[in-house]
Amino acid sequence: MTHKQVQKWPIPISVNEVEHYMKQRVGLGVSFDLGIRKLKILKKDVHIYYVNGLCDTMFIIQLIKELVEINYHEKLSGDLFNRIENMLLNQSVEKTQELDTLVTEVLSGLIGIVVEGEDTAFIIDVRSYPGRAPMEPDTEKVVRGARDGFVENIVLNTALTRRRIRDERLRFEMHKVGKRSKTDVALCYLQDVADPDLLNILRKELQSINIDGIPMADKTLEEFIVNQGMNPYPIVRYTERADVAAAHVLEGHVVIFCDTSPSVIITPTTFFHHVQHAEEFRESPAMGTFVRWTRFLGVFTSIFLLPLWLLLVLEPSLLPDKLSFIGPNDQTNIPILIQLFLADFGIEFLRIAAIHTPTPLSTAMGLIAAVLIGQIAIDVGLFVPEVILYVAVAGIGTFTTPSYELSVANKIARLLLLLCTAFFHLPGFVIGSTIWFIFLVHMRALNTPYFWPFLPFEPKGFLQIIFRRAIPGSLLRPSIVHPRNRYRQPPGEE
Question: Which of 216, 238, 269 lies at the terminal end of a domain, its last residue?
């Protein structure tokens, strides 16, 4: 995608011209949060631009105090610009000669200082973004483990990751996305491990994004980076846990941080990345394997239990005599397929309502749905008891899926399998399941096979998916990320 060349305006040597530009283009004097502090230092005008709410006020006051002190300790002769630079008591001081860069940085929460007679401005990082403290994400809770999670501040999120990976080869490559929003987006990777081809793809995709802004943050980035279309299955993985993100960086993945978002994007990922959970790695290998198998069973149940039960209801001859009790014993005027769809959508109503319901009221809503609606629906003959039972078990399997996006995609697959089974019975169930499997096998996430290591089959990777191996025994990084350094614990590395 081609872009028009953006004209770079130099900073005028007159501070009055800079102020005029700020008033005409940026809204100085109209927007109440955009401010200016005018100083007279050694008989020269010095203007400080800032945005209230994004800056640390105490830092600004201290900087102004140091600048004013120049009038009492310095002579009129000499280089005022260099004196001001030496008096800026801050760890992050940069210079710019471009007016649009000055405006962008000021609107990002930094302060800009322009000096009369100079075509260079100082950019000082005194950002103090409003936000909450790190806390454990609601969707990725663990029994044991870290309780700090990502927040909406990209600076804090990168610090949480840097705290876990103190390697000089860890990189946070910053980009700005959005012509108006200029949102900070960072690519996080290990320089000597991450796949250069993947990095080039991500850089190219980020630079080609041509849109006003990305207020929906990481989700908008995903839609630009991957061409998902109507495919319901997630191609990238989201996480709000800093330890999970750091673990994937060490494996060779590239993690995308987006300002204003408490979650990060992990690339590349496969189907099996979406069914992993941090809890498995906080327990012993045996317990972690048991939890993983239980979760796999829950995912399998959420997809195939209802279609399989419907098939046995429609084809009782497939059941052995000892299992002949499976199926509704009572006659009903409503077809079983309609009952399954009504009950399944009822659970989806509850899930959506729980998201929009305040916590104190969600418990009462659940009791109303379970006790009143469910039981009365059975008493009046709308549902047979077996429908409620199997839909509930399938719903629990949906909730055991760690990835919310994957759980919803599996529910769509389950509903399609129900339709195939209802219309074509056994051939419909077999053909529908086969088409679902082939669809996932042919999916690729950023040139990565979605069903790796099952297809293409890789024995070592397959064993690591089936069994939770001890960390000392996991010497190799996953080959799916094409790491430049395959060994996690290479002998004799300095």
Answer: 269
Q: Is 253 a domain residue?
A: yes
How far apart CA 208 and CA 3 sit, in angstroms, is 8
- The structural domain count of the chain equals 3
> Is residue 476 within 8 Å of 488, Cβ to Cβ?
yes
Radius of gyration of the chain (CA): 29
Rounded average pLDDT over 173-181? 92
Cα–Cα distance between 464 and 251 in angstroms, integer?
13
Beta strands 111-115; 44-51: pairing state: antiparallel
Same domain, yes or no: 287 and 425: yes
Q: Establish how many alpha carbons lie within 13 A of residue 174's alpha carbon, considering only the half-sphere containing its beta carbon.
A: 8
Q: Give whole-number Cα distances, 337 to 282, 312, 314, 435, in Å.
A: 41, 13, 10, 21
Omega cis (within 30) before 456: yes
Residue 310 domain-assigned?
yes
| Assigned domain for 457 exists | no
Could you tell me if 178 and 53 lie in one domain? no
Choice among 175-189, 230-244, 359-373, 383-397 with the minimum mean pLDDT: 359-373
Same domain, 251 and 292: no
142-151, pLDDT tens digit by residue?
888 888 899 9
Domain of 87?
Answer: 15-124
The whole-angstrom separation of Cα 406 and Cα 231 is: 11
- In this structure, the answer to whether residues 245 and 314 fall within a common structural domain is no
Question: Does residue 265 sit in the same domain as residue 311?
Answer: no
Determine the residue type at 323.
Answer: L
3-state secondary structure of 256: strand
Q: Are residues 290 and 362 in the same domain?
A: yes
- Residue (of 149, 197, 200, 151) closest to 173 by Cα position: 200
Q: What is the pLDDT of residues 425-465, one digit of tens each?
A: 999 999 999 999 999 999 988 888 999 988 888 888 888 88
- pLDDT value at position 190? 95
Residues 46 and 115 in one domain: yes
Alpha-carbon distance of 122 to 470, in angstroms, equals: 52
What pTM was estimated for this model as a whole?
A: 0.87
| Average pLDDT in the chain | 87
**Beta-carbon-side half-sphere exposure of residue 136 (alpha carbons within 13 Å):** 11
Q: Are residues 20 and 169 in the same domain?
A: no
The per-residue pLDDT for range 395-427, each reduced to its tens digit, is 899 988 889 899 999 999 999 999 999 999 999
Longest CA–CA span in the chain (Å) reads 105
Task: Determine, yes or no, domain membership for 432.
Answer: yes
